[in-house]
Please model this.
Amino acid sequence: MKILIPDVHLKYGYVDDLATALESRGHRIFWNGDRIFDQNFHPDAILSQWPEGYIRGLELTEVDNERVKSIKHILKEKRKRTLIISFVHNVLPRPTKHRKTNRLLKTLFEVNYSSSHGFIHLGKKSILDFEKQYPQINHGEGLYHLVNHGLFENLRNVFGTEANLPLKIEANASQNGNFTIFVPGTIRYWSEISFLLNAFSQSNLERKRIIIAGGGQLLNGRHPLKWIRRRRIESSSDIQLFARRLSDEELCHCLIKADIVISPRLEATNSGIPYLAATFGKRCIGPEVGNVTEAVKHLDGLLFDTKKPESLTKSLETAFAERDTFSMPAQPCPTWNEIARNIETFLVSLRNRTFPQSIA
Model:
């Protein structure tokens, strides 16, 4: 099949793993959401990962009604001969600081999902949430598929060795006896950091070291973190803050050195962080939200109540107490080749059902 993934190609992410596996099975993969506007380009299938992929490369403030309308029109035309499948990474868009942008993103999500012939879910919770949010969309038997998430195979194969350790972690961060806590991912809201700080302050762990790393509008965007909030983070000798996106090498460095990894989300449908941690054999503490609960349980991680910082404190103390006995299974997730095979079966089945005339 000729398959379009309408988004930018980020090497070593899990979508890259999926694309690599699909290519190994003989499929041709194309990238970039703008390709839907090419009238001479007719893929057999579109695998939409995120609705935002159709506007990737634009500032959110540059997206207007006309842009969303044009996406809606072209997808309506494309679906007449191209199978469109949406991964449900997020049921609803993440809120921004702009009401107009929030409305447009919500419309874009509705356009993306209503234009799709089928759906791929990464957990059972999102199936229920999706049907509740979009009762008007046909989401019946045979129109959606549930897959397990895989590990970050390409990232581990390229960078997951002790030979690649470029990040300068401050003194004592990885010395014997320290309990290193790593919090990766884009920092979206101050509430996420505030929750973490409250949980850390209640902890009785000795010699703990906390590394928070991630970019995003909160830390280094157009509305940077207020100095008083940044000071609250940096005033703790236990915390080292990297207010930017880490390189792949730096990310692997922190994961190799970590004793525990935290997914800091307070609201989410999915999070790749539990699988990122598992890729390097690390235990993850994650929130009881969306499909993240299922993922963390599957990987023998620990959960916290997003309304109670003391719940995260308790999970941290449990992780510390069990640090010498915990071990990650050798293959905690299916390989991406196995996942690609399952998705391929779903695509072929749904394509034959949607376009029976294409069956040779």
